[in-house]
Specification:
This protein is of the alpha/beta class. It has one domain: Metallo-beta-lactamase, Chain A. About 30% of the residues lie in helices and about 25% in strands. It has eight helices and 14 strands. A six-stranded mixed beta sheet has the order 1-2-3-4-5-6. Strands 7-8-9-10-13-14 form a six-stranded mixed beta sheet. Helix 5 (about 165-175) runs antiparallel to helix 6 (about 180-195). The protein is globular. The relative contact order is 0.12. Bound molecules: zinc ion (ZN) and fe (iii) ion. Zinc ion binds next to loops. The site of fe (iii) ion (FE) has 6 residues, from helix 2.
Amino acid sequence: MRIFHIPAYTDNYIWVIQSGSDISVIDPGDASPVIELINTNKLNLVDILLTHHHFDHVGGTLELKEQIDGKVYGPVGNIEGIDIHVTENDTVKTLDYEFSVLETPGHTLDHIAYVESQKNLVFCGDTLFSAGCGRVFEGTFEQMHNSVQKLNQLVPETMIYCAHEYTESNLKFVLSEITDEFIENYYKKISAKRLIGDISIPTTLELERKINPFLLDVVPSDLEGLSKLEQFTELRTRKDNA
Ligand code: ZN
Ligand code: FE
C-alpha cells in the first residue's frame, strides 16, 4: 500500500493510491499520464475521487471512466461523469482507505476534501497548499477562512496531499511578509529539493502551522491587532496582488 504522484500540466499532482495492482486516483486533470502509468505497470484503475470542478483536476475523468472497475466520486455540482455525489461526512471506501468528506468551499463553491483519519492523511485539492492556500474564486474570504480552519482541526500529524507544487513560490511570499528563521531555513531546504526535481508534498499540518500564515498561527506583525478573518482576508489579498 503506497501513495505516489503523477505530475500533470505545469505544476499539478494527480495523487495515486495503490494496493497491489489496484490503484485509485485523486483529481486526474489529464488522462494520458494516468493511462501511461496503468499500461506500463499493468495496473488496474478502481476509483476516481474528485475535489472540485476545475479542469486541471477533472479533465481526465470521462476518458478514464471508460476503464474503471469502480466509481467516480465527487461533489454535488456540474462535474460530468460523477457516479456518486458526496457531501459533508459521507464515507468513500476505496482500496484499503476509508475517507470521510469535508466540504471546503471558497476556492470553488463545490470544493471538498477527503480525510483518512486512521491513516492521518487528507487530499485537499486546492484548499490548503504548503505555505499557502487556494485563491478565492467563487466563495467568500470567510468561507475560505472557515475551510482552511476546518482542515486545521485535523490532528497535527495529518499528511497533507495538495494538488499543486506551489511551495517554493508560496514561501517566497511568506518571507516577504514575515521574518522567521525557521521559515527561512525551510525555504532553503525546499529550494534545494526543487533544484534536483524532488517534490515538496506531502507536508504535515504540524509543519504548516509553523510556515503557513493562512492557518494564522504565524502572521505578519502588522496584522496582529486584527480579527482572524481580517488577518486572513488581508493576507489572501496581499498574496493575490504579490
Ligand atoms: Zn482549482
Ligand atoms: Fe488547481
